[in-house]
Each structure stands twice: as structure tokens, then as C-alpha cells.
Amino acid sequence: MQAWIDNFKSEFDTNFIQENRWQDLLKGLGNTLTITFFALLIGIVIGVIIAMVRSTYDKTQSNARPSLRRKLFGVANGLCKVYLTVLRGTPVVVQLLIFFFVIMASSRNGVLVASIAFGLNSGAYVAEIIRGGIMSIDNGQFEAGRSLGFNYLQTMQHIIIPQTVKNVLPSLMNEFIALLKETSVAGYVAVTDLTKAGNIIRGRTFSPFMPLIAVALVYLAMVMFFSWLEGILERRLRNSDH
Amino acid sequence: MTTDVLIRVEGLVKHFGGGIHALNGVDTEIHRGEVVVVIGPSGSGKSTFLRCLNLLEMPSAGRITFEGVDITDPRVNINLHRQKMGMVFQHFNLFPNMTVLKNMTIAPVTLRKKSKPAAEIMAKQLLERVGLSDRADAYPNQLSGGQKQRIAIVRALCMEPDVMLFDEPTSALDPEMVGEVLDVMKQLAREGMTMVVVTHEMGFAREVGDRVMFMDGGKIIEEGTPEKIFEHPENARLKEFLGKIL
Lengths: 242, 246
Ligand SMILES: Nc1ncnc2c1ncn2[C@@H]1O[C@H](COP(=O)(O)OP(=O)(O)OP(=O)(O)O)[C@@H](O)[C@H]1O
Ligand SMILES: [Mg+2]
What we know:
- The complex is a heterodimer.
- By secondary structure, chain A is mainly alpha-helical.
- Helix content of chain A is 83%, strand content 0%.
- Chain A has helices at residues 2-17, 21-60, 68-89, 92-103, 110-135, 139-148, 152-182, 194-205, 209-239.
- In chain B, a hairpin with a 2-residue loop joins β9 and β10.
- The two termini of chain B are 28 Å apart.
- The model of chain B has no long low-confidence stretch (mean pLDDT 95).
- Classes of the chains: A mainly alpha, B alpha/beta.
- Magnesium ion (MG) binds next to α1 of chain B.
């Protein structure tokens, strides 16, 4: 037992204390959180825009007068569909590589490129979550709003969206948690995120157990924390369930 | 009843995709203060007709003139005219995330720029009239069906509409709650509200209807006073329909 403890101590010392290696992990964690945060922002903006275009097009389909505006709207809706198909139909790592080496090849800022790539990818999933939320609201809610004189956007803003938010918040939180874990492939494009930092330490110290388990524990702690938050949120929403 | 025309419907046609002809040329006038009851078999186009009046369904052809304005003209801002046309649905469609008071005040406060206290005073007066003063802070899922529909009616009234459109307002209710909703509608009729009511409640049609309109196959087949329609029907399909339901 004593031998095991001594061994643990020396391993710990090599992997985290020497050469201030724990600081590399901390920096990696910082990058992971930065990428996740900005990807989330980008994802929500894109997701909301696409969800609005798609659900508006669907909702107004049966009642629209043929017009140029309607045609342009149809084009926008088609573009959104293409976006969703491509971004959800290819692996996020491939998208990340294409962004880093092709589309944004002139930028050497890996964190920026990764934020954008993950954001665009996440946006596709967020869009479908929000659209699902909007479409799941009974059409009678929409008609009640319109019959009172609310225009389309006012109906969305005052009647549909507030009901949608409640429905989609848990799913959005799940998407956020998935995104946090997904960013662990950012190392492919020369970003030292948490995973990459752990892997670098493993390469230097030739002792894989400690750094990799440490990385896993940090992810697990974060995911458990956000799941806990989500649980609270869901309970709150249920309690105000009217 | 004056002869002032509130809504004029000319050559109204509505086709849905898949070759469904819901309305095949409807012409009629609805006068200020008139209570028009629309009856007819299922699928005859009653709801479609009613929903075309406030353009919840966009007519395929024809013209609807409301208070002298052709609202089927694409340049017309239909939202402004809808404020003057209250609608009550079969399934109430109250906003489940808002209290009764909020349900009633959100439209006048948002659209008519009424102050919140003024809107609430008005809403409370209306609640008083339908005997639901004590439910102002309740949420819709805490109400019975009959209460929900009475709230839906006063929610529409908060916009001070010039006409009220009802699409089978009592069809989703348990029998013992039908009366309380019909009473509110009767009271409204007595106060001179212009009403277009799609219903299967023939008692209501007889008692407060100024005119009964029988629809079949997307057309008005026969119309007239309740007495004429119920006691002296002419059209064979109307006779058959009445034979089934009376
Ligand atoms: N949104 C729609 N899309 C396609 N067809 C529709 C739509 N709404 C109504 N219809 C069709 O139009 C016809 C008339 O329907 P409508 O709802 O106006 O009849 P109704 O007289 O109100 O019947 P009910 O007594 O059953 O309510 C029916 O054949 C119906 O199936
Ligand atoms: Mg109907």
C-alpha cells in the first residue's frame, strides 16, 4: 500500500507539478471553454435565424399569395435546408479540417476557426431543436394570436416563442453539453484544448494513465455540473407549468 | 336591425390543395347588429366560410368588404381589420402560459397601446359580466371547458370588435356546460353585437338568430329567418339535414 501511494505521488509530481504542467491543462481547459462559449453563441444566432425562416415558410405555406417575396422566401428556405443537410450529414471533424485548411486557411488562429466551425455545426442542430419547438405549439395558438390582430412576428414574439422557450430549453442544454464534449477534437487543427493538453503531457512523460484520466475527470465534472443545472432548470419550468 | 352592411361577401371561392373545393361561390351580406347562424352538414364549408371572413384562410377568389374596405386587397393591412373582428374557436385556444387577465389584456396593451391599468379595468368588468371575476389570476388549465370558452369570448371582446365570429363554440364542451356559454352569447346578441355563429345548437339559432344560413357543398343553399328555415324549409337537402338533427 505504501509503495502504491509513493508511486502515485511521484506520478502525480511528474505529470502535473514538474515544469508546471498543470498550467498547460488549465490553459487547455480555458481554450475548450472559450471555443464552447463562442460556438454556442454562434450556434444560437444561426439556429434561431434558420428556425424562423423554416417554420415561417412552413406555417404560411397554405395561406400565402403567390408573389416575388414568397419566391425569395422559398429560395431562403431551400438554402436553409441545404445548410442543415450538409452540416448534419458530414462529421464535425471533417468540417473543422475544411475550415482550418481550406475556407479560413489564411487564419492561424485555431481557437477562432474552431469556434466558428463548431458554431456553424451546432447551429444546424439548434435550428432543428427550435423549429421542432415552434412546430409543436398547437396551431390554434397561432390562429388565436392572428385573429386578435397580431401580425406574424408579433404572434411569434408574444405568443409562440415564450411557449417554445420552455419546451426547448432542456434540449438546448443537452446540445450545449454535447458541444462541450465535441470540442475535444479541436486538437486536429493545432488548438491546444483540454484534450490536446492532456495528450501532450502524456507524450512528454510517457505515462498515459494520469493525464488522460485527469482530462476525463475534468470533462465529467463539467458535464455533471451542467446536467445538474439543467435538472434544476427543468424542475423550475415544470413547477411553473401552465 | 339596421340595413347598414358590415361585411359584404362576393363570389367567395376557396380551394385547398388536392382538388378540395371548400367554397364554391358564396355571396352574402352581414348587417350591423345582425346575428347570422350558419348551419350545414360536416364538410359543407362552414368553418372555411367563417375563417375567410377574417382572412385566417386566404380566399382563392372573390371579395370580402369589411366596413367599406376590400380586405382581400393585398395592399390592405389585414392585421388592423382583424382587431375589429373577434373570433372564438371550438377549442378555445387560450394562451396556456398566461393568466386569464393576461390573456385578455395582451392584445389591447400590445396592439391598441392601451395602458395596462386601463386594459385590466376593462377586462375585470367583462369578467364580472360573465360571472368569472374570481378567476382573473387563474391559468387556463385551472378552468373548466365552459369557463375557458367564456374567457375566450371576453378575450375577443377586449379588443372592442365590431363583429364576433364563432366556430362551433360549444361543440367541445360537456353538455352541462353548453348553457353557460350560450347564455353569454345570447346576452351579447341582445346588446346588439354583430355575430356570425357556426353551430349545431338549433335552439340558439331559433332564439337569437336573425337569419339562418344553410350551407352544403361549399355554397349557401337556403337562407332566411329561423322561422322560415325551420318551419318552412324548401330545399330538399335542408329538409334532409333538419330531419337528421331535429
Ligand atoms: N386546411 C385545409 N386543408 C385541406 N382541406 C381542408 C382544410 N380545411 C378544410 N378543408 C376541407 O374543406 C372542406 C370544408 O371544410 P370545413 O371545415 O369548412 O367544413 P365544415 O362545414 O366546417 O365541417 P364541420 O362541421 O365538420 O366542421 C372539407 O372537405 C374539408 O376537408
Ligand atoms: Mg367546421
